């Protein structure tokens, strides 16, 4: 089934890079009017340039998702720009620095939780305010396979992504009767700046990929197509799910 998002207003956080950019481009290619939100102004503007170059419509908003007032304003801006907010994809996130739990820096723990959990919570909160006002919508959170299983060397990240699934499932229950579906995707290793050698030691990536059934990393576009399906009417009875996009890794 071809997914069409004609006349649909979509917000993507973390849309300046990697998976978020692929999601924003995929929605725009399917006809959506897309708000690209990120703290990286240049990257967000580049994503919008790419949307416009292929004939789509988008705006960029510079925002730090840990700032509650900025998120409230972001949702207002999105709703004002395109009349409503049909779909919100909460994708912005950070990995943190690899360390075993007993050597994990306390400030780093707080920072990862502040972006991946509290920041995502704030986004959901204000998006849901808008969706309740307009009578419905669809939210897709970008969690991780590390939301379902442990992720050796990245305890704060794994903790934050497990918690994202808790928020996803609870919101799915709370707003099912309000015509708002809330789902999550759980990608394994995807080729983006986050998994580049500067962030994860190459030998660790190699270890994960060797244990991966498909023996390869995923591509951002492969996550984007799962997100578009979850957001689409084709998934109208799918709510509160954590969809793995992992080449079979979770099946082991
Ligand atoms: N790459 C992977 O292997 C992988 C696997 C599973 C899940 N994920 C998740 O996918 C999402 C996107 O990751 P990616 O790989 O594309 O990473 P990325 O680093 O390429 O992109 C993350 C984006 O989030 C933005 N961001 C970070 N903190 C922010 C903040 N406080 N406010 C606003 N924007 C902020 C960054 O500026 C960046 O543009 C993340 O939530 C990540 O945890 C990634």
Automatic annotation (TrEMBL):
Belongs to the short-chain dehydrogenases/reductases (SDR) family. It comes from Chloracidobacterium validum. Its EC number is 1.1.1.47. Keywords: Oxidoreductase. It is an enzyme of class 1 (oxidoreductase). NCBIfam families: PRK07231.1, PRK12826.1-2. GO terms for molecular function: glucose 1-dehydrogenase [NAD(P)+] activity. This is Glucose 1-dehydrogenase.
């Amino acid at each position: 089934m071809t997914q069409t998002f004609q006349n649909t207003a979509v917000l993507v956080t973390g849309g300046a890079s990697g998976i978020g950019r692929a999601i924003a481009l995929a929605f725009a290619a399917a006809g959506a009017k897309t708000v690209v939100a990120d703290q990286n102004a240049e990257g967000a503007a580049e994503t919008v340039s790419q949307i416009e170059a292929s004939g789509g419509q988008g705006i960029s908003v510079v925002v730090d998702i840990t700032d509650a007032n900025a998120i409230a304003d972001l949702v207002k801006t999105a709703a004002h720009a395109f009349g409503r907010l049909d779909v919100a994809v909460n994708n912005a996130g950070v990995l943190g620095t690899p360390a075993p739990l007993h050597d994990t820096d306390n400030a780093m723990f707080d920072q990862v939780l502040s972006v991946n959990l509290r920041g995502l919570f704030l986004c959901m909160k204000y998006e849901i305010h808008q969706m309740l006002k307009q009578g419905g919508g669809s939210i897709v959170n970008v969690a991780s396979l590390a939301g379902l299983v442990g992720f050796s060397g990245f305890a704060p990240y794994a903790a934050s992504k497990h918690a994202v699934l808790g928020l996803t499932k609870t919101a799915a229950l709370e707003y099912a009767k309000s015509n708002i579906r809330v789902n999550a995707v759980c990608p394994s290793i995807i080729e983006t700046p986050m998994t580049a050698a500067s962030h994860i030691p190459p030998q660790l990536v190699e270890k994960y990929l060797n244990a991966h059934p498909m023996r390869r990393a995923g591509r951002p576009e492969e996550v984007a197509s799962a997100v578009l399906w979850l957001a689409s009417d084709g998934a109208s009875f799918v709510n509160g799910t954590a969809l793995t996009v992992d080449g079979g890794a979770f099946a082991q």
